[in-house]
UniProtKB/TrEMBL annotation:
InterPro entries: Polyketide_cyclase/dehydratase, START-like_dom_sf. It holds the Pfam family Polyketide_cyc2. This is Polyketide cyclase. Gene3D superfamilies: 3.30.530.20. It comes from Mycolicibacterium arabiense.
Length: 151
């Protein structure tokens, strides 16, 4: 059974506009995420836009599709992965020294049974896969922080 919420956050010494420019450029997602190899939006980035994605774990590759569920420029980007029913989001909050960036994977309505079955059969089980996802979220946020603070 999947955890309903996985979440990581980081403080970034850069203004929200700078962080937003990195997070909202979906072509950059493979630069941040250790699992994502491609995220391509069809049409302008807005609520309702659809994406095609390619993920990798070791020698295993799998495609997914998603749809942008929330798009609030400078504040929040969220998308639902159609294959497993999870919603991934990035939320930005101004702080005294820059930006707090929070990455969340929401599965309040559960993950589709077929997705859980595949994770259990091929990826070592849901608990270990979710630990790996959380580690990846922290790695993604660290990479975004490094890019925002050095460029």
């Amino acid at each position: 059974m999947a955890e309903p919420l996985l979440q990581a956050e980081i403080e970034i010494a850069a203004p929200p506009a700078k962080v937003w420019s990195l997070v909202s450029d979906l072509r950059q997602m493979p630069r941040w995420s250790p699992q994502c190899r491609l995220m391509k939006s069809f049409g302008p980035l807005r609520q309702g836009a659809k994406t095609v994605n390619l993920n990798r774990r070791g020698f295993l590759f799998w495609p997914t599709t998603s749809q942008i569920t929330e798009f609030i420029p400078g504040q929040k980007l969220a998308f639902r992965v159609n294959e497993n029913n999870t919603i991934w989001s990035y939320e930005l909050e101004p702080t005294a020294t820059g930006t707090r960036l929070v990455e969340t994977r929401h599965a309040e309505n559960g993950v589709k049974a077929v997705s859980n079955a595949l994770v259990n059969a091929v990826m070592g089980g849901v608990p270990s896969f979710e630990r790996e996802l959380l580690e990846g979220m922290n790695q993604s946020l660290s990479r975004i922080k490094a890019a925002a603070e050095t460029s």
